[in-house]
Amino acid sequence: METLFDYLHLRRLGINTHQEPVVYMRQDCHVAMSEGFYAHSRVQISTASHQTIATLVLVCSDLLSHQEAGISEATWHLLGCPADGEQAWFRHARPVDSMSFVRGKIYGQRFTQEAASAIIADIKAGHYSDIQLSAFVTSCAGDRLNLDETIAITRAMVDSGQRFDWGQDKVLDKHCVGGLPGNRTTPVVVAIVAANDLLMPKTSSRAITSPAGTADTMEVMTPVTLDFARMQAVVEQQGACLAWGGSVSLSPTDDIVIRVERALDLDSEGQLVASVISKKVAAGSKQVLIDIPVGPTAKVRSQATAQTLKHLLEQTGAALGLDVRTVITDGSQPIGRGIGPALEARDVLQVLRNDGHAPQDLREKSLQLAGVLLEMGDKAAPGQGYALAQSTLLSGQAMARFEAICLAQGGFNEPQLADYSHVIRAERTGVVAYFNNRFLARLASLAGAPNARSAGMDLHVALGDQVQAGDPLFTLYAEAPGELAYALDFLNGHTDVIRIEDDMV
Known about the structure:
It is built from 18 helices and 18 strands. It has helices at residues 30-35, 73-78, 99-106, 113-124, 130-140, 147-159, 186-195, 214-221, 228-238, 252-264, 269-282, 303-319, 341-352, 360-376, 385-394, 397-409, 437-446, 481-493; strands at 7-12, 22-26, 42-46, 51-59, 68-71, 87-92, 172-176, 200-204, 240-244, 287-294, 323-330, 338-339, 420-425, 430-435, 456-459, 466-467, 472-478, 498-501. It has a six-stranded mixed beta barrel. It has a four-stranded antiparallel β-sheet with strand order 12-15-17-13. Strands 7-10-11 form a three-stranded parallel β-sheet, with helices on both faces. Helix 8 (214-221) packs across helix 13 and helix 11 (269-282) runs parallel beside helix 12 (303-319). The protein is globular, with a radius of gyration of 25 Å.
């Protein structure tokens, strides 16, 4: 039985620790001393109505009294939003048994279905600290997961969340593995497919290591944080949606893992496949088209790696009941002109509106992908999908459906560009011969994207363009002068972002 002195009074500190629950207490308070807590202890917190596990931070100042325990915003939500002063009891959390599987993987063992299910269940339950999550992410990094392990993790991730069932045989979806700045084909493709009366419940991720994900770009124009019921209603009304997957609890552990991957700047082939396929299965998709851009500075840098990824995606999809087709595309340069949420949204709208200034590479790639999906959905005969996609775009039907989807999701907004900008000009005359996609993405991120939605980069040249010394190569946009200066400082140390060579013709 608890005594009068076994508890502390909770105090909401208003500290954003993202998804990791954190609790703060004085290192000399009676609970910390009697329980033998140390910094980064995993602590179970119990109130009269809720319970959660949090990472402990010990306080050495008068920020808290000896009778108080501070809680982060994540902890506050997990405890049911308690009022300041509510009593809570603390003890060491039980060891996370599934960490033994992670340690085994680090030393060369393979994940079984039992191991994958236990790990994913513990991650979903919040039993893993960020340090433990980092160990899991690192154990999977690179090509350390084979096909069987990838399928096991994918199944476990699907089982961890909700799942849609649309009651139809044709439910289309698409995905790009990423690593290529711009390339915002999804909104155009969804609009074209939905305008042809096919079902396409599209959920997308936010950026991991890039300046924008599809969800970030769409959020410039419309709300993307839809709950399960709202997403279902939008799809039933319009035949499609463009929502953030994290808001509808589809494969929820994936968003937790992505957060740590982003912090570590690590990617795993197997984890990427598990992320993509688990969300497609959970969204109720049946036919999925996946774009794999390949280029020297893209995420996938060789045809051999692309073929390996193609095999993993198609085989994992088949194991979970999906018809997955992959297309390997050119990843040598960005697609579209804009890099960053608002700039990419501008490009999307220019394509949908048949604007004469629309980036033609984005338009063409969107039509190619939409054409394949129209054929997969039996709306066009083999080889006829592109023509149907093109006529749908030119007629204005795609734009009309896109606006209708946005309005169903909560409204439509025109993108706005940031107030601060700086034009980068060519230092010599010649031909644009090379883009460093990773540096371009890094520059846009340093300028503030994706958190600053109107920040990023606007490209003015493409591979093969002739330029004169002094011609504009790209414009950087930032919402604050300090972010613009930070990006320019990076640029001064990395001169090979866009390479110009002598015209040999």
